[in-house]
Amino acid sequence: MKKITAWAALLLIGAAVQHTANGQTKQLNSSKSIKSTTIKNQSAQQQIEKSLTIYFDALNKSSVEQAIGQYTTDGIFMPTGLPTATGTAQLKIAYTNVFKAIQLNVKFDIEEINLSGDIAFVRTQSHGTQLIHATGQKTEELNREFFLLKRENGTWKIARYMFNQPK
Hints:
The protein is an alpha+beta fold. The protein is 46% helix and 39% strand. It has a single domain (46-164), classed as Roll (Nuclear Transport Factor 2, Chain: A).
């Protein structure tokens, strides 16, 4: 059995060595293309992470302008238990109301980023506390978030955002 495995390995090595220069060039070009795509995806991923970091910072600072600045003009916010906000004017009202009601102190973990051209799906999880302004009560905050981002004029913006609590 060892002899058969050794012969099979030698045959595979021999076949690989017999590739023509043309075949090797094609392989190298293919490899360069994959690296180029990977670099582009890494750059896009970094830009997405930066955009979401700015958004998450806005939530912790209760900054309405900074939060809605990370949305597309037709962006949609779908908070649990509250009406859907569509477009900049409704987003401004929604975030103003949210920040009047609570102060967040949360950290976010990006769990997944999927890219396709100028569209990205991002799944995150947040954990920390929220201060309820009406009662002064501090409670634990834990959410799962789902974002759809679009690249507009070279910048990644939130097009759709929704969240819910895992328990």
